[in-house]
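Before the break, one more example. Copy the sequence into your notebook; we will annotate it together after we see the structure.
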Amino acid sequence: MNDTPAPAPAGPIVVGTDGSPHARHAVLFALREAQLRATGLRAVCAYDYTPARFTGYGWMAAPEGDGGLYEQLHDVARQAVTDTVHELRQQLGGPHVEVEIIAEAGRPAQVLLDASKDASLLVVGTRGSGAWGRLALGSTSTEVVHHAHLPVVVVPADSRGAPPDVSTK
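Here is what the structure looks like once it is written out:
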């Protein structure tokens, strides 16, 4: 008889994405890691809606009781993440990875931390633009690194600005 307990199943890998080329690198890394670990992937997009940020025309309010704008933002974010993950999964090939897509309003770092409560790994990208950017993490990746309760991988931006290379399987 073997008295060694069976290993606990690994939680999913959580990856933050915002549709940027830098986020594509993070999603690609997370997909590859999920394949290696034979676990699922949770792709999370947080959007922070404020009328001034959204319109650029100052403080504007959405009509009272009209959730249509918020639903539209959610749907657009969710579809963009779904399309990106599908495209990268097709290009990458290899073992199938189950993917859960989450699009949620809120501060990106907090949404990622909340979504990773049962995860085994949290993956984020960093902008890394310019000489200073290569030395510093973005605000979301910095906050995630400082407050995460699990291992975090920060995937650097590709210095050439090229799309992720998925040809090396």
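The longest strand covers residues 41-47. Residues 48 and 106 are 5 Å apart (CA to CA). Try to locate both features in your own notes.
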